[in-house]
Each structure stands twice: as structure tokens, then as C-alpha cells.
Amino acid sequence: MCERSVALPAVAVLPRNEDKNGHALAELEAIGGPAITVRLDVTEREAISGAIYTVERELGEIDRLVNNAGVATITGGILDESPEVRDATLATHRDATFLLSKLTAAAMVRRKGGEITNLASRYSYLCAGMLPSYGAAKGASCS
């Protein structure tokens, strides 16, 4: 029987809360692939480019980006939703997806390869009456 060695891809996890996501790093390290965590609150726009820089410095150029950050606050509808909830929801889903994609896509275009995946939900296509900003933000992050 012939055994083949498969090189595992390097993985960076960019959690807002490193304690909650420490298990992901432990699992990645257990399977033997190079992995790091870089703390990032995606609503802090100025921190996004620094996080991308850290990932590229530690692991090399980014070949794949998965935009997976999310927040959903059930407010009871548009009449009850505060501007703060709206702003945080749009910053997390729409703005961060755009900025992370833009920053990583530039290098992908130069290399003529790469992949960006934006995770969404059914609310990308349907109205979310009890959490209106979530529906608007998910729809915007898929465009």
C-alpha cells in the first residue's frame, strides 16, 4: 500500500472573541495544518487591513476567503429597531464583507486565482420582519 502525504492548507481564523474560537485553532493544530488566529472585530474598519496584513505575513498570500461574520438581533420589527442595531448589523454583514473581499481580491487578481465565499441565509432573498436590518444586510452581502 502506498501512502501519500497531503499538504494541508494554512488556515487563519479571525474571531472577534478569541476565547470562544480558541477551540477552532486547537482543532486545526491537532490535524497538523498551519493555523493562526488574529483577533478582528469586523465592524472596526481600520483594523481589517491590519488583520489581512498579519495573515499574509504569517501564512502567505490568501487564496481563499470565507466571509462568515454575523450578528442577528431580533428587534420585533422596523418600528422597534434602534439605529445602533441597524448600524452594527450592516457594518458586520455588508461593510465587512465588502472590505475583506476588496482587500483580498486585489492580490487574487494579480495572481490570476483565488476564491471568495460569502455565507448568507435565506434572508438574503426573503423579508425578515422581526429583524429588518439583518435581511437588508444579508441581501447586500450577496451582491
What keyword list fits this structure?
143 residues, mainly alpha, Rossmann fold, two-stranded parallel ribbon, two-stranded parallel sheet, 47% helix
What would you say about this model in short?
This protein has helices at residues 18-30, 45-59, 83-111, 132-141; strands spanning 11-13, 35-37, 64-67, 115-118. With 143 residues, the chain is mainly alpha-helical.
Question: Could you explain the architecture of this structure?
Answer:
- Helix 2 (45-59) runs parallel beside helix 3 (83-111) and helix 3 runs parallel beside helix 4.
- The protein has 143 residues and is mainly alpha-helical.
- The protein has one domain (11-141): 3-Layer(aba) Sandwich (Rossmann fold), CATH 3.40.50.
- It is elongated, with a radius of gyration of 17 Å.
- The termini are far apart.
- It contains 4 helices and 4 strands.
- It has helices at 18-30, 45-59, 83-111, 132-141; strands spanning 11-13, 35-37, 64-67, 115-118.
- 47% of the residues lie in helices and 10% in strands.
- The chain has a two-stranded parallel sheet. A two-stranded parallel sheet has the order 3-4.
Q: Strand share of the residues?
A: 5-15%
Using the 3D structure, state the CATH architecture: 3-Layer(aba) Sandwich
Biggest sheet, open or closed, and with what strands and sense?
Answer: 2 strands, parallel
What topology, given as strand order, has the largest sheet? 1-2
| CATH topology type | Rossmann fold
Topology record:
Elements: E1 11-13, H1 18-30, E2 35-37, H2 45-59, E3 64-67, H3 83-111, E4 115-118, H4 132-141
Parallel strand pairs: 1-2, 3-4
Helix pairs in contact: 2-3, 3-4
